[in-house]
Specification:
Layout: H1 3-12, H2 28-77, E1 81-86, E2 88-90, H3 92-95, E3 102-107, E4 110-114, E5 119-124, E6 131-132, E7 137-141, H4 144-194, H5 199-246, E8 248-250, E9 255-258, E10 267-268, E11 273-278, E12 283-290, E13 302-307, E14 315-327, E15 332-339, E16 350-355, H6 362-366, E17 370-373, E18 379-381, E19 384-391, E20 394-399, E21 401-406, E22 409-414, E23 421-424, E24 437-438
Parallel strand pairs: 1-24
Antiparallel strand pairs: 1-23, 2-17, 3-12, 3-16, 4-11, 5-7, 5-10, 6-9, 7-8, 9-11, 12-15, 13-14, 13-16, 14-15, 17-22, 18-19, 19-20, 21-22
Helix pairs in contact: 1-2, 4-5
Amino acid sequence: MAEGDLAKDLASLRIDRGGERADAPTTSAGSAAGSGGQRTSSGRHGGGVVRFVVVVGLLAGLGFGIKVAAPRISERVFKPEVQVTEITLVSPAQASVELPPTAYVLPQTVAKVGAKVVGKITKVHVKEGAQVKAGAILFELDATDQKSALATAQAKVASAAARAAAAKARAAAARANVAELEVQLERQKKLAAAGAVTTNTVEDLELKLKGLKAQVLVADADAAAAYADATAAQAEVGVYSGNLSAMTIAAPIDGTAIGKPVSVGDVVSPGTPLVELADFTTLLVETDVPEARLGLVKAGAPCEIVLDAYPDKRLAGEVAEIVPKLNRAKAAGTVKVKITSKVDVLPEMAARVSFLKKALEAAEMKEPPKKVVPAAALVDRAGQKHVFVIDGGKLRLVPVTVGGPFGGGLELKEGPTAGTRVVNNPASTLSDGQAVKEGSP
């Protein structure tokens, strides 16, 4: 609606209090005209009122919509960023030392099983998590081509050996003939000297002897060539025999298959990992200790270990090895700890290690860990301690009951479970149900 039309409509609503004009016509025609004029003015007044009401309604609806939608838009676009911490389980030993770094369980003996030749997997004899012994068959590759090549090489060996034997026999026969002819030649030479035979006979025997000696040389050469072919073929037999044995892949160590092995039908080549084996008897907890504190750790020193998988169990351990090399990027050294308590552990499990001055007694080991909440996560609301729990991107104000200082925070006697993410240093403007975005922990 134009601004001029709105002004006209508002003006039409004004009441004329001046009465009728003195010179108004009194004839019937004039009355009729006046009546017609009244109807026209009334129609304009009614239409103006309707338009005015519509405009006012639209403006009111727009204002109500902005009032309702503004908080939601603000909530989505202007979510406050909060820092995140969490409620943890801390054992008494961990609360009494200054060095509880995060660690991981890692096997010290690992074998990545691979193929030596290109081939297609036809059989798989191992499953993920299976325990195998060294020498056990894990995979079989398609050996059809290797068997065919081996058979061909073996046939070459046999053929070359036969040719060598034949050439050797010919050479032996030729040598025998040469020896016999040499005896005859000597006799004929004596007879020719006595005049009993002509010199032609001697010359014929000499020519024949020369031919036989040539046959010996040829037979020897054939035998040598045949032996060379047999040697080359035998080398091929060795290669194909090795390849054929490589079609069967065995476990190099005693261990457990970690990770999923390759499947039947997969084509593998040298360097392709088929499965990884880990010797679980060599599992140690490895942790990075800052260089400045590495001097506090001694080989054989007692430790307490708490696995994230079993947060309520306290395990005994001892320092097994201090790796004699520092990580320059981390400015830390690696310490390996052996778990002396009986417990089922898996590679890559996360743990917390506490290095102790003395081993804990059995009674001390049985003392359960306590829940700890960072003091900076607490807020006072209506005289009660609370924490802001982050749940699905929104805040949930949860009342808590805390005790005294413990493990770098306060003991949480009543409240959320360990591992619950809460807001660290919450602002006074935060409220229950408010949407937030998480910043750095």
